[in-house]
Write a structure and sequence with these properties.
seven-stranded mixed β-sheet
Length: 627
């Protein structure tokens, strides 16, 4: 008895000790992961900061970011459709898969990156980078550069760092302005303010700078230069307004990164990474102007004319420069930017991923909405006949499982169609499909398309915008189409039809769940993310599988033109009043002369943000069609 008690006590002690060791090991692994993340974050931030001073005609520093066991690494030499690009991509994935701790690695041909899922306890990002560098060295691509126009993905910290830097510069400018006002320090010469304003008024200069140092870096350089100029010459109003705007941008980019973190595991996997980029032909002509572009075109010749007029009337070069500065379209730019930032922030909170945030800033230039009818219908089981000994519900579940993962509402080709352990295949001499589970036939089903919930409401929302509505031909589409819409027979080449619309002068928004080429060609691409489908990588906005997200995007698109037009009204009022003050005001205090421009910018920004929030927060209607 005593022996058995001793054995039981010893066994219990061993179990307790083993549990303690297991807990200690778990704690140690968690600590290592925490330390690894803590060590990686500063390195990534430093890399992002160094990339912001990469002032070359083509970008030389690669973009790398990693989080939660996922790494995104740009690879030199995989852009394009040639054989060398395929060899570099193949060798990069094979080499990375051969590392201990790497779960999978796939090259994303759309973004030019290799995506790696790895165990942070067994391999670190630096080892992954060394492997990629070795592949580049072997293929002679180690010295190649990257294009500046490559879209920065939501998970990248760089846009957040840029917005935070811009906001910090505004705060420093506000402090400098306050000190200068208290101490009565002399203001910066007018010539310095004019040099910065030229980049705001003359968009050709800004475009050339973007081509030289990249869009993100251009915004950062101009914002910091503006902050310095404002802080040393124009009082405290300008830094306050600029700070409000950059705070909105920071909030948008922060939420964009958060929604990517929430949806990354759902969207990104080995099966959902595109190995071939869609063919992107150049846009046949420049995008049509929106309200702000038309106002900018008018301001181009007006600004020097106003300066010349002020000089002729006052014989004062300082007043002439103030008249030129009054033509900076701050209210128009800030109004549209605030609308897009607030709407993007709210859409991201609702789970919509702004893969390319620039798409939100093009909504006011959309004149045609094209809806791929495949996004409005889903395949459903209309009837089921089980084999002997099989439950009918089992047949329905197996068939529905396969249909649920199909991006298009059709069964083209010979089949079979698989999803996990389930398979659908054609039955010779029968219109029905055979249903199989783990190699065993369960029965036969009749399959057909049905409109999904909110299909009719989506078309109604698209038809209620200022844009024209085209819907590709498909089963049941005619019954859903509103009076303002038209059926489009794209003939299997929706991307080609998008290009023809653009050639005719339209700005085109495309909604699709399956056509990556059309999404890539569109001015604004809205994708419905389907399980295991790589199509969404070509879009600007990535919605969920349900149409509620698309309905909200269309509500934002409907409000975009109005928001831009209101911003132009504020800009016109601010410019007019500031020009009058530049000529007639007593004294020559720039802070007072240009105050209407800054007040108009603040008003346009507040109204634009409120409009964007209101549109993105709209309550979706109850569906009139059911799937």
């Amino acid at each position: 008895m005593a022996l058995r008690t001793a054995e039981a006590t010893a066994s219990a002690g061993v179990r307790v000790a083993a549990g303690a060791v297991g807990q200690a090991d778990t704690a140690l692994r968690s600590a290592r992961r925490g330390l690894g993340a803590a060590a990686t974050a500063p390195r990534e931030i430093a890399e992002a900061e160094r990339s912001l001073i990469d002032f070359h005609e083509r970008r030389r520093r690669r973009r790398v970011w990693a989080e939660h066991g996922r790494a995104y690494i740009e690879v030199r030499g995989i852009g394009g459709h040639d054989e060398r690009a395929r060899k570099v991509a193949g060798d990069a994935t094979r080499s990375l898969r051969g590392l201990r701790g790497v779960r999978w690695a796939e090259v994303n041909a759309v973004t030019g990156q290799v995506l790696v899922a790895f165990d942070e306890d067994r391999v670190d990002v630096e080892t992954l980078l060394d492997t990629v560098r070795a592949v580049e060295e072997a293929h002679g691509t180690r010295e190649e550069d990257f294009a500046w126009d490559q879209v920065v993905l939501p998970g990248d910290r760089t846009p957040v760092i840029v917005a935070a830097t811009e906001l910090a510069a505004d705060c420093a400018a506000l402090a400098a302005a306050a000190v200068g006002t208290l101490l009565g320090l002399p203001a910066l010469p007018h010539r310095a303010r004019l040099a910065v304003a030229l980049f705001e008024v003359e968009h050709g200069l800004r475009r050339r700078l973007k081509r030289r140092i990249g869009p993100i870096e251009t915004d950062l350089v101009i914002s910091v230069a503006n902050a310095a100029v404002h802080g040393l010459s124009e009082g405290m109003l300008a830094p306050v307004v600029d700070g409000m705007y950059h705070a909105l941008l920071l909030g948008e980019r922060w939420e964009r990164r958060r929604v990517w973190g929430r949806r990354e595991s759902e969207l990104v996997g080995p099966a959902s990474v595109p190995h071939e980029p869609p063919l992107r032909s150049p846009r046949p002509r420049p995008r049509p102007p929106g309200p702000i572009e038309r106002w900018d075109e008018r301001l181009g010749p007006v600004a020097p004319a106003a300066a010349a007029g002020a000089l002729a009337l006052t014989r004062d070069p300082g007043r002439a420069i103030d008249a030129f500065l009054a033509a900076v379209p701050k209210a128009a730019t800030y109004g549209r930017g605030a609308f897009a930032a607030a709407a993007g922030w709210q859409l991201a909170r609702r789970g919509i991923v702004p893969l390319n945030a620039a798409g939100l800033r093009r909504l006011d230039r959309v004149s045609t909405i094209v809806v791929d009818s495949a996004a409005l219908c889903r395949l459903h089981v209309l009837d089921a006949e089980p084999d002997p000994g099989v439950d009918r519900d089992q047949v329905l579940r197996a068939a529905s499982h396969v249909l649920h993962g199909m991006p298009r509402p059709d069964l083209t080709g010979a089949g079979p169609w698989r999803q996990g352990d389930h398979r659908l295949e054609r039955v010779p001499g029968d219109h029905r499909l055979g249903v199989h589970e783990n190699g065993r036939r369960l029965g036969r089903v009749t399959v057909g398309p049905r409109p999904v919930p909110l299909a009719q409401e989506i078309l109604a929302a698209a038809g209620s915008t200022r844009a024209g509505l085209l819907v590709t031909d498909g089963p049941g589409v005619a019954e859903l189409l509103p009076p303002a819409g038209r059926i489009l027979n794209a003939g299997g080449d929706l991307a080609g039809h998008v290009r023809r619309l653009q050639e005719a002068g339209d700005g085109v928004l495309v909604i699709s769940a399956a056509d990556d080429a059309a999404l890539a060609a569109a001015d604004v691409g809205v994708a419905l993310a389907m399980p295991g489908s790589p199509v969404f990588w070509s879009a600007d906005l990535v919605c969920g599988r349900q149409l509620t997200d698309v309905w909200r995007v269309l509500r934002v698109a409907s409000a975009a033109h109005t928001a831009s037009r209101q911003a132009v009204y504020f800009s016109q009022a601010g410019t007019t009043l500031a020009t009058v003050l530049a000529v007639t005001a007593r004294g020559r205090l720039t802070a007072v002369t240009l105050s209407p421009v800054h007040v108009a910018g603040a008003a346009a920004m507040i109204l634009g943000a409120a409009t964007g929030l209101r549109a993105a927060r709209s309550t979706a209607p109850q569906p009139s069609t059911t799937g």
